[in-house]
Structure formats: structure tokens, C-alpha cells
Amino acid sequence: MPSLDATRIGIIGLGYVGLPLAVEFSKKKPTVGFDLKAGRIEELRRHIDVTREVTTEELCQAGNLHFTSDIEELRPCTVYIIAVPTPIDTNKRPDFIPLIRASETVAKVLKKDDVVIYESTVYPGATEEVCVPILERDSGLTFNRDFFAGYSPERINPGDHEHRLPTIMKVTSGSTPEIADFVDALYGLVITAGTFKASSIRVAEAAKVIENTQRDVNIALINELALIFNRLGINTLEVLKAAGTKWNFLPFRPGLVGGHCIGVDPYYLTHKAQEVGYHPEMILAGRRLNDDMGRYIASETVKLMLKRRIHVADAHILILGLTFKENCPDLRNTRVIDIIAELNTFGAKVEVYDPWIDQKEAHRLYGVTMVDQLPKNRYDAVILAVAHREFTELTVEDLHRMCKPAAVIYDVKNILPPEAVDGCL
Question: If residue 290 lies in a helix (H) or strand (E), which one and from where to where?
Fold first, then answer.
């Protein structure tokens, strides 16, 4: 059995999930943060976090934390926490390559009585069906005799500095009752909000994947209502405010659904459901509707431009915001790109401005070239796509200064009063 007192922790993957984990655990235990990206390690050693989830001060104070891209430096660890992305491929099927590679890495240094904990979002059963066999195969050790596993789904909300790792209740689980107790106690060292020990790894996996599936379906409903209300000439936000006066009305808003969680996780559940012979209707319908919102926003903008006799081909259209959510530099699975792609089919000249992002990363991921400045009297249309604080501070007059006299303003996020814009969700 592993000993909590003698625990040394290795965190595999130092992104939005792994880095906050490494910082918090280093306050209690010797911790090694491992990432394959040498550039990321060098930045962290210089106390720079480009994700903005951890401050320079926090990194400076993490004296018990060592960053490395050398596998051998993981060998003294007794607990390995894997926090790598679980994306989908072009066919919207689970892409387990990052998880497989991370499992292969840990297997090289795995020892008797070590514990491997997964935080990546997967479908129920994936930890024991996909990951554990790799650990056994590459380490030569036997599961639940020589080494053990746990699952504690991440609940990081990028860009949210109010709900941080210690203040979000953590679901935990283990491959045996004793390991479940160990994993729960381990996270209890750093999670001030408390822990919830699930009865099995599969239950914990299922709990995580439905968190975001539920939100996805609810947002899909509101998006569909927005499409209906638009045809009826009713402002959706006004309807939601009125309905929200009832105590049990859920406060969801229409919009683009991207990111590494809500726009991805449901496909893990639907994949597993189809494997066992069930075709999920509601979940996939919600996904289709949410995935189509970018094209809808673009087409509505084009319609408004045509009503103003604005020639769309070669028109200059500004998109404000590219990240998947406000006040966050995360570009993963941003659905703003759908607006851009649809406008490109009309021959428009689309320009994108976002002060939060790494412009080289935007070009690498999506081929998007950003603008650094917002000139006066240039744009035939402006689409407010992301509610960054820099954009919520803009006035209608600020936007009109960027635009030609007959320009269209479309407000995806309902930042401005509805009477001040030409279109909104």
C-alpha cells in the first residue's frame, strides 16, 4: 500500500489543469511538473505562465516544485497525476493519443506500490480499458497488485479566478477501496472545498462527462429558442430576464459553444453509447445545433449587410475576439472560427482582433492573421464575438468610429443595449 506521508507527486501535462495542480500540491508534497514541450518548461522556470491561470508570484513561491521534460526526473515519484487533453478528431471521435502517450511515459518509471491518477475527461470505463493495459504492458507490473489507479476529474474553469482549484469540490475514486481512501485523502490535502469519494472509477468518469453534456444540451435549447425568437422579432435576452424571475429557471444564455470541455466531452459519451448499441438522440441533436451557431451568426450578419445595400464580397468585416471564452487566452476548439469560415465563403475580407491571444498560435492553429490596431472608418461590419473586458468597455460610439457610415454591428454576447446594434442572439 502507498504511504501518504512518503508521497512524492509527478504531474504529467502542465496546461490549464496540470499547472494549478502542481502548484497546489507542491505546498504539501515534493512535486515534479513534467511536460514534453521544452519551451513550456523554460517559461515556467522563468515564472511565466502563458495560460494566465497561475501568477508569477505563485510560481516564485512554489519552492517545492521542479519543472522538467526529462522522464528520468519522474522516477522518484510515487503518485503520478495525468492531466493531458482529450480532444476529438476530425470525425468527432475520441482522440486518445495524448492519453496513450502520457500512459506510456509513466509506465517507463512506474514502480511497485505506485498510484497513477487520471484527470482527463473520458467516457466511463476508459481508464481501466484504455490506460491501465498500457501501464501493465510497458511496466511489466500487475494492476491492483503491483500498482494502482485512481480517477479524479478536473474541474478547472479557464479564466475564472474566483473558482480556483482549492475552492471547487473534487470527485475522487480508486481502483480498490483502500486506494479510493488514499486518493481521497491526497486531494483532501489541497482541496479546501472538500471531496466526494465516488464508488468506482467508472462512476467518477461518468460524473465528469455528464457535467458538460448537461450544460451543452441546456445551451442548445437556449440557442434554439434564440433562433425562434429572432424570427418572431423578440429579443432573447429580454425573454430570459423575464423567465429568470421564477426561482427554478436555469440561467443559460445563447452563444457559441467551444473550448476543450463543453464542445468536446459529449462526443466521448456518445461514442461509448454507440459502442454498446444505443444511439443518443438528444445529446447529438444538441451538438449539431450548437456547432451550427457560427454559421448562423455569419449568415445573419450577411443578411443585415445586404439590407443596407453593402456588397459582401470584398467587404471589410471585423471580428472582435477569437478565444473560446472571455478573459482567457485559450484557443482550443473556438467556434469563432466557424463565423470566419462562413464569411470567407462570401468573399469577405475578415480581420480579427483579440488582445488576449498569442498571434503565432492563432496562425498555427487556424491560419488566422490578426490585426494589432483598429483603424477608423474601415469596416462594413463588426461582430462582437467574445466578451473580453476590453470589449465590454467599448461604447457604441467607439464601434461606430471603426466603421463606415452604413456598417452593421452584430452583438453575439449581448454586450451592448439591443437598440444600439443591428443584430444579436
Answer: helix 281-291
Kindly name the residue from 77, 131, 261, 328 that is annotated as catalytic.
261
From 388, 383, 350, 387, select the one nearest 366 (Cα to Cα): 350
**CA 353 → CA 123, 295, 383, 386, distances in Å?**
36, 19, 11, 10
Whether residue 1 has pLDDT greater than 80 = no
Tell me the residue length of the chain.
Answer: 425
Largest CA distance in the chain: 74
Dist CA 2 CA 86 (whole Å)? 28
Residue of 283, 232, 230 lying closest to 254 (CA atoms): 230
Q: Would you call 424 a catalytic residue per the annotation?
A: no
Residue 210 has which C-alpha cell? 455528464
Three-class SS of residue 348? coil
d(CA 40, CA 400): 40
List pLDDT tens digits, range 133-177: 999 999 999 999 999 999 999 998 888 888 899 999 999 999 999
Quote the cell numbers at residue 211. Answer: 457535467
197 SS3 class: strand
